[in-house]
Design goal:
The complex is a heterodimer.
Chain A: H1 2-6, H2 12-31, H3 42-47, H4 50-59, H5 62-66, H6 73-76, H7 86-101, H8 104-110, H9 123-133, H10 135-138
Helix pairs in contact in A: 2-4, 2-7
Chain B: E1 9-14, H1 18-29, E2 34-37, H2 55-59, H3 67-70, E3 78-83, H4 114-118, H5 128-142, H6 168-180, E4 185-186, H7 220-223, H8 225-230, E5 234-236, E6 240-246, E7 252-258, E8 264-274, H9 277-287, E9 313-319, E10 335-337, E11 353-358, H10 363-367, H11 377-384, E12 388-395, E13 404-412, E14 418-424, H12 428-447, E15 452-456, E16 493-495, H13 510-526
Parallel strand pairs in B: 1-2, 1-8, 2-5, 3-14, 8-16
Antiparallel strand pairs in B: 4-10, 6-7, 7-8, 9-12, 9-15, 10-11, 11-12, 13-14
Classes of the chains: A mainly alpha, B alpha/beta.
Chain lengths: 143, 535
Amino acid sequence: MTDVLSQPGPRFEDACLKAWRPVLLRFGDEILPADLDGFPTVSEVVARGDRALRRVVKARPDFCQTAEVLPRSEHLAQLRLADLSGEVLIHLRQFVAGLYFTDPEVCRLLGYTGQNAEPLPDIRQALEDLADLLVPVFELNFS
Amino acid sequence: MSQNSKDAIDVLVVGAGASGAITALVLAEAGFKVTCLEQGDWTDPGDYPANFPDWELRGLKDWNWNSNHRGRVGDYPIDSSGSEVDPLMFNGVGGSTILWAAQWPRMRPDDFRVRSTDGVADDWPIGYDDLASFYERAERDLGVSGLEGDPAYPEGLCPPMPPLPLNDISKRVARAHNDLGWHWWPGYNAIASRQYGALNACVQTGTCGWGCPNRSKASTDLTHWPRALELGVTLIPKARVAAVTTDKRGLATGATYFDEAGAERHVAAKTVVLAANGLGTPKVLLQSASSVFPEGLGNSSGLVGKRLMMHPFATVVGLFDEEFPSWKAHWGQSVQSMQFYNSDSSRGFVRGAKWGLQPTGGPLLAALAESELGPGTLKRVADWIGHSVMWGIIAEDLPEDTNRVTLSTTSRDQFGLPGIDVSYRLSENTRRLLEFHGARAEESLRAAGATDVLITSPVRDTGWHLMGTARMGDDPATSVVDRWGRCHDTPNLFVVDGSVFVTSGGVNPTSTISANAYRCATRMVEKRAEQVVSL
């Protein structure tokens, strides 16, 4: 696995996801509990398939470098979150939060529609509105 | 490879950010032969995180404000374990204007007279009037939007573009200030409210802090470098300066640098200008120690690297029951308040802070606003997204010799050059100031209808404003450069970035850095015939 992960290529992403998936399933719900009604759990988002995971590692290819040092799946059952530290823990938290809060269903439930472009409103009208709003400021005698 | 002295250029500028770009442009307009060395590279707005739905995740790595997390080619190691604030910057063409929020408040006249008015720190050798015309040029050249008539400033502040329109939540906070009898004013921002030169009108993606994909935010790669290159300036990216070289008389002769391939090179220059920011400039000066200057170049006062100021920053987030697009609008400041900017000793501290009202970002930023994820995180995000607005508090910190930058004895960059260590502690004055302003900002947001308010003070990862580490002054014993940025010890070496600040003011410094760079560069042009050079 290490050789594949250190040599970006056709199998690089697959190997990366193979290393991350069990770690996310093991610790994801503990790191970010879905403690609001109606929201999916992290493990449910992970279990939906690799599309979302691929989206995360495309945004953060450095996560695949960390994949080299992730605990192996056969050791996960004995590990606690407190046993993890350093960059592994930082990346795990970022992976979990990044995966969860870019999930379309989670964003929909939050009402977050993204950073979409929207032209400014009419400047002339905005200036007229400001003129009224600013009247009290001129009455402050501020200096 | 070394240039022969007969090939010496007129001016070598180190750093291609705001002050470096301005200096290169002004000198090139006057016919100087200029080369600029920039340790980072060009950026492509098509690569900015906001082009992607996972913009926040990308912003945590390649576009992180903290260079230690980012690790790009232009970055160098910074150990801030001895600091309460992490210094932030972007190393590339455009410098930190690539990732800045583009808030553009000027300093006020009293900011230059802190010793006279409050009996602390020092007065600047220059005043607001010395900078006024250069503020105007900077505002024209970068493209600043705002409204004239602000009673918090002297007459003559007239931005070239109208202010960015206020959204509903900003109007609501403004009305609350009207009810409280508190000052507010539409924000000054280097963000285009209409098509302006190279800038397109803002489309409110709210991602200014991670690069503007619409080219609406002024950054000197857009506003200055194209013209400077047209005028013949040679800009060499991915060039890490090792040292300013000097002759036996102590005059600058150019600089050595490592190129992209790691080869050491030398540029011979009649005059050298450092514009590498409040960390990079003292780093180069200290690295330039020689037999003539064993403590570092320009350091006969012992002040190079000392008096670091970073504007400790607090966020005060108001949570509202009503829904509104809290992540939208520009990420400059929609509203600015100077209500508590003036010193008032009855508060138990001196000096003050500017407040700027901003959107609060997307869900990942909300989740990571506190250091730990866990139970309650999701509720906090749900409460935040679509329900929040934020005052950013810029605290004026006073200069102290113990807050400083030194060369690292343990870390090295890819060329073997030392990294830097940052030591920075908040003073009791700053802590009291932040506590007071946090409480007043909470009053503001509750008056606007906030049902809950979250105060984070100080926010560790907010040391954008790097100032004071090569201060200006008239006395060589107590300053590094004179009022024109000329190094007392080496008269053909200049510093034009935030390092020269005597005190920090309580406002974002780029307007003042830019105005002062225009002022110093203009002076270099005017006095060119008198300039002492080595070559």
